Amino acid sequence: MGLAAIFPHCDFHLLAAMPRKLVTAVMAAAVGLLPIVQAQAQSRSLPIVRDAEIEALVTDYAAPILKVAGLNSRGIRIVLVNNNSFNAFVDGRRIFINTGTLLQAETPNEVIGVIAHESGHLAGAHQQRLREQLRRAQTMAVIGMLLGMGATAAGAASGNSSVAGAGGGIALGGTEMAMRNLLSYQRTEEITADRSAITYLSQTGQSAKGMLSTFSRFANALSLTGTRVDPYRISHPMPRERIANLQTLAHESPYFDKKDPEALQLRHDMMRAKIAAYTAGPGGVARIFRNNQRGLAARYGDAISTFLHGSAKAALPKIDALIKEQPKNPYFQEMRGEILLKANDSAGAAKAFQRAAALDTRKSGLIRMSYGRALMLTGEKSNMSSAIRELKTGVVRDPEFSAGYGYLAQAYGQMGDIGEAELATADMHYYSGNIQEARIFATRAQQKLKRGSPEWVRAQDIINSKKPRS
């Protein structure tokens, strides 16, 4: 499994261009409310999580919200970020949600409320408007600094130290004013997105109770820290203020007391169990489901924990028991395949992934790639053509999953097709963002591919590419 943003809806290039004092102040203000991994944001790294089961569930959460927000035709993607904090943010046509959000949210409604809020930002074009505000803040800060420098120079030339000191105050005052105006603008947009979220939830027949629960969690966490926060130096309204602003609207909805369907709650619990098993260690699942340790979700998490931290031999009967209860669940079969791979039973894993792919109504490229990889790992030449077919199907469905091209390169290599192997390696580097290595392998591939063929043209596209894709 695999960006928490200090400034959730901003353009980092614009931040880089702002005066250092203003950037520091804006970033510190945002950190005051949410726990953030600052190093990740500064390096713009994105520790992305890919999982067919979780992606299918979160997509189901988002679909009705995006429709009523008028965003369903814009190709909005939900991206999962490996970060333990409760946070989400938007960028272009993507909504990023931390795994910590999914793990901490006890009901689907809480996550749906987060998605509704972020959809409000997208529908309101808040990201573009924030870029304009950032440019304006930069201009204000620069003007303030120039005025301050002019006053300081005049004071120095006249020998008047008080004038020179006032120049420094003008510079700092300009930066402070720019920061406060920017944060005030962002707080207004957050309130607008909250209200939009309430509207979307009502239009889709869902409760806003999850949103209030989320803000209550923020408020409790803030009070437990004992931190005193200046409400004018943060990018979001204070949690209690958000609750007060929304409580009346939320209670006016006829759906306020509506609960999530039991089947959806079970899927949510199984998602939490999986995330806990992967991110919270062996005891993570037990802590979450301590009141229902024999429930399906708890046993699913236990099976995964045993696979990750114990032995495949011990995990296999646990997943088989779950399959007996839900024989048509593709993700139980998928996990069975992973367990068998760990047990070095590639042939058995291939059969499990094949069943998972057959049961998967969402047609996940990830499951097809797992099937192809397992076929490849059998080492049987008779399986290589099928492995390549499955891997190619997977990357067509999920073209930006770089690891799939790596598996494809291995399969082509075992077949002795070096040109195709090097082209797949070039694609792997290209979608990993390593454009230099991608060009090297694309050039090598062209030397072995038929000139003018689709594969040769693809290699040329990589060679000519200007920017890495991610």
Walk me through this protein's architecture.
With 470 residues, the protein is mainly alpha-helical. Helix content is 70%, strand content 3%. It has helices spanning 12-17, 20-31, 38-43, 52-68, 99-104, 108-123, 126-158, 161-203, 209-225, 239-252, 262-279, 284-288, 296-309, 312-325, 330-342, 346-359, 365-377, 381-397, 402-415, 418-432, 435-446, 454-464; strands at residues 48-49, 77-81, 88-91, 94-98.
Question: In brief, what are we looking at here?
Answer:
Pfam families: Peptidase_M48. With 470 residues, the chain is mostly helical. It has helices at 12-17, 20-31, 38-43, 52-68, 99-104, 108-123, 126-158, 161-203, 209-225, 239-252, 262-279, 284-288, 296-309, 312-325, 330-342, 346-359, 365-377, 381-397, 402-415, 418-432, 435-446, 454-464; strands at residues 48-49, 77-81, 88-91, 94-98.
For the structure shown, list the relevant keywords.
470 residues, Serine Threonine Protein Phosphatase 5, Tetratricopeptide repeat, four-stranded mixed β-sheet, disordered N terminus, metal ion binding
